Amino acid sequence: MLTTTISATGALFRAEPEKARSKPTVTATLANGHARLSAGAFNWDADLPTVLGGSNLSPSPTAYLLGALAGCAVAFLRDTLAPQFGVEIDDATAVASAASDLRGLVAIEGAIPDLTDLALDIRVTTSSPADRVAAMFDAWGTGARSTSPCSSRTRSRSRRRSPDLSRRRDGTGIRAGRAS
Hints:
Blueprint: H1 2-15, E1 27-31, E2 34-39, E3 42-46, H2 61-85, E4 89-99, E5 116-126, H3 130-142, E6 166-168, E7 173-178
Parallel strand pairs: 5-7
Antiparallel strand pairs: 1-2, 2-3, 4-5, 6-7
Helix pairs in contact: 1-2, 2-3
């Protein structure tokens, strides 16, 4: 089913490229003392930790950003890439992390609140053949045919770590383990 859907989508987008273009939008408004975010039919709240003046009743915007990266990795690998490369994913976990200096958020001179050291560590368990898994991960973001929206905006330098398809990339890490 997924392979048929992906193939049909690819054919449609090749024939009519304008149908492939999108511009996702999320709107934030103040609701009940915190940010109410909306995207299409979906609504959710964001809040800040109490040390930054929030109520800590909802995930922080940073948690949502990192969650979007981790969620993108798991969903994109399973739903889009795995079917294209004939990979059966038994399990997948993605952990997104970043560092920040909260002093910058409260305007302490010399402190910068930017997120740094953005990392995405992905672990996939599969019994699929190693060559298919390697091709899937090459398409993910380490090869010339990078397709992932999650990995395309991160700095990376790929290097092979071990014969079991484990990879660590500066900025984004990928590890794929084979089931025994």
